[in-house]
């Protein structure tokens, strides 16, 4: 806390300019006021409005760098040979450091220089972003074929049915699987996990200290408006992350070290890997720029004196309502203050001793526990979808990663923000009671389930892959693998081709028995065909690349229904938050919110990506192998993938619906009991009031 100025009883009457001048003494050596203290009064770093602007930009860029990995998750899997379970664990790992340290933020409170600590956290986020790009620079150039990286002209010829040239290939491939290769792979994966952990640690002080700083020095009536602006701008971060991913994944991964003669891939090729690392550099640069002003803000600034006239009209979604900590008056007793104001009076040992008791007391509250469980279920669905929706759209509808990210960034995330805003507006304008808040949450979750139900039937069938998916009714497939036995096709090669007449896909031209290739120029690009294919009816030709999907047009209706379900689910955000604020004791509100976010991280945001990734891995029908270990999945059973991915979403939404139904039933029962008590007390009051009036009448008679 800052030094007391003058007598305690006279402090509120101190003139504003004197307060600002004396506040400036903290920043001068020896605590003496500088001669030009009056010139520092209009400094922009003593304005809470400027702090709100800076913090909005910082949280926007911080969420952008946190969400960028989710936009490029399938690309990272392809580049480094990761399964969906491993990539899900990687995406969830930033919650580990965050969860471990977030509890102690409430202890430090105003003991520390909050702006500088926010700036230090932002620097850690920048370092984490730079560390995420490090695997790209220490790895060899991406090889999408079996030729050397400097001989890209042999791309298509390397996969032809040429026995004499392909026989020694497996030995060469096995010789490259040395212990050094495996150590390098583990090093690359370890660096990414370390970067994600550092990203979570750096994010710890940013939001809590920023919110408390705004709440301490903003006018009590302006604080909800400033927090609303902060949350509204912050929520655009994930949308910008997917938009950035859409742009960067159109660029080739090795754009900084392109081979001579260029590459023969296009973004539609299943072997394409985009410049996933470039987005981390852009995001880290944005965080670095946003972090600079925090080293110039004071530890304490003059409290804002004037109320904004339009504060009640802007962004009611982030309003903390009448129960927000910003409305705590300085004259309230200490036990009524939030934990962040109590913590400075406790030592670390005392804080650790007090925390379990308050935690158990809060968890024994039935409404709080049910609300948190419902939010855990919804957060599990959101975390899994945010991590793997892009990959799901790629695989299910055969679209590029850039196209999938564009859909998510332009439709899914903005509609979710609209749902959160609508929920806040309904709570604020209709003055919803806890019972009606629970009813709103129940209806929102129910409509979310209804919108998700048709998604089970909207998808594309599994591609017909020769030798992988059994399709006995297709001519020519019964020749596999006998027709390509003389070709000595390597098992680890991947250069898919498609037979347009039967819509059957082959792993390589060699697996189709093709011995010749033909390149045709069309629309400023070269289209490659393979001929003399012994495994194809009529001998071909077959075209390079995967077969086009017959139902790609369903991706837009699918994402629209998914977005509408997201609107209904996010509609419950503010009402459920108000159920927590209005359902626990005043002195436990801050800790209850902290426990809520901690449980959401531990029970939802950490395990959900791993659960969804494991479910996705179980639908794989063909794995790529690298040095004897299972790497990335190349083909999925689309029907099984859709049923399990959407099934998990449906399961978690059902759990949330059940919790909200129990909350509504409990609150309805409490409301009935309260009305009965009020009616009985009113009847007793009427009887008591009527008795004195009857006695004089009887005496007169």
TrEMBL record:
<dbReference type="InterPro" id="IPR004156">
    <property type="entry name" value="OATP"/>
</dbReference>
<keyword id="KW-1133">Transmembrane helix</keyword>
<feature type="transmembrane region" description="Helical">
    <location>
        <begin position="117"/>
        <end position="138"/>
    </location>
</feature>
<dbReference type="Pfam" id="PF03137">
    <property type="entry name" value="OATP"/>
</dbReference>
<feature type="transmembrane region" description="Helical">
    <location>
        <begin position="225"/>
        <end position="253"/>
    </location>
</feature>
<keyword id="KW-0472">Membrane</keyword>
<feature type="transmembrane region" description="Helical">
    <location>
        <begin position="554"/>
        <end position="581"/>
    </location>
</feature>
<feature type="region of interest" description="Disordered">
    <location>
        <begin position="1"/>
        <end position="37"/>
    </location>
</feature>
<dbReference type="InterPro" id="IPR036259">
    <property type="entry name" value="MFS_trans_sf"/>
</dbReference>
<dbReference type="InterPro" id="IPR002350">
    <property type="entry name" value="Kazal_dom"/>
</dbReference>
<comment type="similarity">
    <text>Belongs to the organo anion transporter (TC 2.A.60) family.</text>
</comment>
<keyword id="KW-1003">Cell membrane</keyword>
<keyword id="KW-0813">Transport</keyword>
<dbReference type="GO" id="GO:0043252">
    <property type="term" value="P:sodium-independent organic anion transport"/>
</dbReference>
<dbReference type="GO" id="GO:0016324">
    <property type="term" value="C:apical plasma membrane"/>
</dbReference>
<dbReference type="GO" id="GO:0006811">
    <property type="term" value="P:monoatomic ion transport"/>
</dbReference>
<feature type="transmembrane region" description="Helical">
    <location>
        <begin position="439"/>
        <end position="459"/>
    </location>
</feature>
<feature type="transmembrane region" description="Helical">
    <location>
        <begin position="273"/>
        <end position="297"/>
    </location>
</feature>
<protein>
    <recommendedName>
        <fullName>Solute carrier organic anion transporter family member</fullName>
    </recommendedName>
</protein>
<feature type="region of interest" description="Disordered">
    <location>
        <begin position="678"/>
        <end position="701"/>
    </location>
</feature>
<feature type="transmembrane region" description="Helical">
    <location>
        <begin position="185"/>
        <end position="204"/>
    </location>
</feature>
<dbReference type="GO" id="GO:0015125">
    <property type="term" value="F:bile acid transmembrane transporter activity"/>
</dbReference>
<feature type="compositionally biased region" description="Polar residues">
    <location>
        <begin position="678"/>
        <end position="688"/>
    </location>
</feature>
<feature type="domain" description="Kazal-like">
    <location>
        <begin position="477"/>
        <end position="537"/>
    </location>
</feature>
<feature type="transmembrane region" description="Helical">
    <location>
        <begin position="89"/>
        <end position="110"/>
    </location>
</feature>
<feature type="compositionally biased region" description="Basic and acidic residues">
    <location>
        <begin position="14"/>
        <end position="26"/>
    </location>
</feature>
<feature type="transmembrane region" description="Helical">
    <location>
        <begin position="406"/>
        <end position="427"/>
    </location>
</feature>
<feature type="transmembrane region" description="Helical">
    <location>
        <begin position="367"/>
        <end position="386"/>
    </location>
</feature>
<dbReference type="GO" id="GO:0015347">
    <property type="term" value="F:sodium-independent organic anion transmembrane transporter activity"/>
</dbReference>
<dbReference type="GO" id="GO:0016323">
    <property type="term" value="C:basolateral plasma membrane"/>
</dbReference>
<keyword id="KW-1015">Disulfide bond</keyword>
<feature type="transmembrane region" description="Helical">
    <location>
        <begin position="645"/>
        <end position="667"/>
    </location>
</feature>
<keyword id="KW-0406">Ion transport</keyword>
<keyword id="KW-0812">Transmembrane</keyword>
<feature type="compositionally biased region" description="Basic and acidic residues">
    <location>
        <begin position="690"/>
        <end position="701"/>
    </location>
</feature>
